[in-house]
Structure formats: structure tokens, C-alpha cells
Amino acid sequence: MKTLSKETGIGIPSIVLPRSDVSLHKWAVIACDQFTSEPEYWEEVESIICSSPSTYRIIFPEVFLGKGSKQKRIQSINAQMKEYIDKKILQDAVHGFVYVNRTFPSGKHRKGLMVSIDLDQYDFHEGSKTYMRATEKTVLERIPPRVEIRENAPLELPHVLVLIDDPEHTIIEPLEEKKGTLRKLYSTELMLDGGSIEGYAIENETTIRSIMESLVDLKKEDGLLYAVGDGNHSLATAKQCWENLKGTLSPELQETHPARYALVELNNLHEPDLTFEPIHRWISNIDIDDFLSFLQGDGKEVDMIQNGVHKTIRLKDIPGELTLGVLQQLLDEYRSNHPEMTMDYIHGEKSLEKLSQQPSSVGFLLKGIDKNTLFSVISTDGCLPRKTFSMGEANEKRYYMEARKIK
User: Fold this and answer.
1) Contact indicator for 8, 211 with CB cutoff of 8 Å
2) Is the Cβ–Cβ distance between 86 and 12 less than 8 Å?
């Protein structure tokens, strides 16, 4: 199996899950980078879980970054992780893969496969030719705060979604037909309009080998095999933590250390229910007239929302193929001269409309990209502009469920 692991860039994880008396409805919360401008969402999460064990207590929702003592919260997260391990709230569940089937309130599904990715086969820098590559430009300033959270954590909880280009549906989809023969690990409704989720253990060595062999067949001519769909910065953080640690280890320990790997969910780009949604921009704390005077010109058109009113404006005519790329250049330039301006990345039109009713703020409603072009774009052009697309709406993001020990 080691040879195939090298060829596919994945490993077989040892996964821990809550013991049977823990409410999974309260355990699983949505990815920490969602609802970053809506603290009321996270207040509702807290009211739902009360005193129950929950991933809410062992993640750092980004809505709280910059509020209160960051170090105190990080210390609390690490202490809570240790308590969940020591008190056996988290227990060994499977050494193998996990087949995941998520059902959304709309009736759509996202089928996935939990695996561990070899971070030595991942590089988030532009021009990378590793098996696994970022799909968007990484904002390097966003990594150090995340490193502080992960570097002393005994556990990782993934919200990273990684895409494979499998038009013949050879890897993940057949597992749905086999799930009746697999050991069910969990099944639960998810809080706050998250739908439901179930997971099944894949422990049979023959099945695991078959999956790995099929993955090898998907590799592109330039070596590309995986494209990070969601969680680019979280995975970049795992990579940075591993690079920081690797130099302190012997070659033998580098081969086996659990921090060399990161737990992710693989999804097939060609799953019919998998949609690429745009990530909108919300700009606040600005002088509207001055901002629009700077932004407008005779270039590309973009939809804007202000006080609940939609209108189309033209941007300055500057070089750039994608409207988002042009808009982002202008926003970055304006913010460099107006540091009081704030910018957030918003999933979902309804959230953007609500936020854009606030004074001194505007929203930009962006369009998605054709998902079928993703792998060819990454192979030929490299990364897309940051926060170009999202896999689904905000409530369809990954909820934390599985965990893995990284110490």
C-alpha cells in the first residue's frame, strides 16, 4: 500500500468520533469561515449546544477573530481538545476511509470520501506542479493567525473539500451502492438548515487498494490530481505547520509523523448536485460617493446592492479577463489608501442583501464560473483570483464531524 500512497499522495487515516452518548446534532457545527459578518448565527449555535460536547468548542469561528483575547480562546480550544481525548468523549472509530453522504434541505446530495492528504504533495504557491494545488490565490497574511491555532492543537477537524476530475464516476459514486455492506459510523440531522449526514467506514484493504488504483488513473499529464475546492487557507495552514515541524524531525519520523497528513473530504467535480456558487463582496465603513467615484469607469459591468436596491455599474477599464479579478484589484487599491474600509467575503445573495442595508456599505453580487473548466484552468493558468467560487451555499458547507490526532 505504501507504493500506491506515494503515487496518489494520500494516506489511510485513523479517525476519531464522539462516543455513542454524544448528541451528533450538537456536536457538528459548520465551517469556521462561514457567517463571518453574522455573529447572531454563532450566538444561535451556542444556544443550541448549551453544555453538550461540540466542535464549536474546539474551533475558532472567524467572526470572533479580533474580538477578545485570541490567545485565551486558543488555549481554551487546545485544553478542550485534550479533555475530549482524555475523557474519551472522542474515541477511535476507524482506520480507513469514510464514505460520506450529505443531504441538503433542497434534496440535493454531496457524496464524499474522507482521506488524509500527504502535505509533501501539496503546494499552495502559484506555479506549483504537485499532485494537489490551490484553486485560488493564497492570502499569505491569513496564514499566521491560523498557524497559532493549529500548531499546538492535538487534533485536526477538517472542513476542507478537495476535488477530483472523475467524469466516469469510478471512485466515489459506486460507494453509494455498496453502503449496505459497510459499517455505519454515524447518521444525524444537522443544525440550522444544514440538512443531514451519514458516514460509513471503508476498512477493507481490497476496496482501499481499488480506490487508490483508480485515483492514479485520474492524474493529468502535468501531475495534477487534486484541486482544493473549499478550505484553501486551512490546508495552507496545515502545510505551513508541517514545514515548521519537519525540520526538527529525523528522516524516519518525517515519514510517519501524523502532522505530515491533513484530513480532507474528496468530492467528484462531475457530481450533478455539486454546484459552484459565487462568493460576493461586502464593503463597509466607506464614503459611498468617494468610493464609487474611484471605482467607476468604462470597463466591465458588475451588479451592486445598496440599501436593498440592485443596480449595474461599470468599473474602471483596467487589464483583466475576469470581472472578479478587475473588481478585486480596484478594491485592494482603494483599501490601500483607505485602511478604515472593511471587506468581507459573503456566501449567499440573501446574506449580502441584508448586510448591504447597513449604512456606509455596498455589496457586489458576482457570478460563478463553469466548474467543468476548473482543472484545465489550474493546469494552464494556475490559481484563480482569491475567493472566486464556493462549493454550494453557506448552509451547504462542511460541518465538522470526524477528527484526527496530529500529535
Assistant:
1) no
2) no
pLDDT tens-place values along the chain, 407 residues long: 344 578 899 999 999 999 999 999 999 999 999 998 899 999 999 999 999 999 999 999 999 887 778 899 999 999 999 999 999 999 999 999 999 999 999 999 999 999 999 999 998 887 788 889 988 887 778 788 889 999 999 999 999 999 999 999 999 999 999 999 999 999 999 999 999 999 999 999 999 999 999 999 999 988 899 999 888 889 999 999 999 999 999 999 999 999 999 999 999 999 999 988 888 999 999 999 999 999 999 999 999 999 989 999 999 999 877 788 899 999 999 999 999 999 998 988 888 999 999 999 999 999 878 888 888 888 877 778 778 888 888 899 999 999 999 98
CA pair distance 88, 120, nearest whole angstrom: 31
Q: Which of 221, 169, 165, 164 is nearest to 379 (CA)?
A: 221
As given in the structure block, the three cell numbers for residue 209 are 487498494
* Number of domains forming the structure of the chain: 2
Helical H runs in 129-204?
Answer: 143-150, 173-178
For residue 359, give its domain range. 281-369
DSSP conformational letter for 184: E
Could you give the angle at the alpha carbon of 221 between the alpha carbons of 219 and 225, nearest 5°?
Answer: 25
Residues 296, 311: Cα–Cα separation, whole Å: 13
Whether residue 269 is found in the same domain as residue 318: no
The residue among 263, 235, 264, 101 whose CA lies nearest residue 172 is: 101
The whole-model pTM stands at 0.86
Question: Do 195 and 262 fall into the same domain?
Answer: yes
Q: How far apart are CA 153 and CA 135, in angstroms?
A: 26
**Same domain for 306 and 178:** no
CA-based end-to-end distance of the chain: 23
The reply to whether 245 and 365 lie within a common domain is no
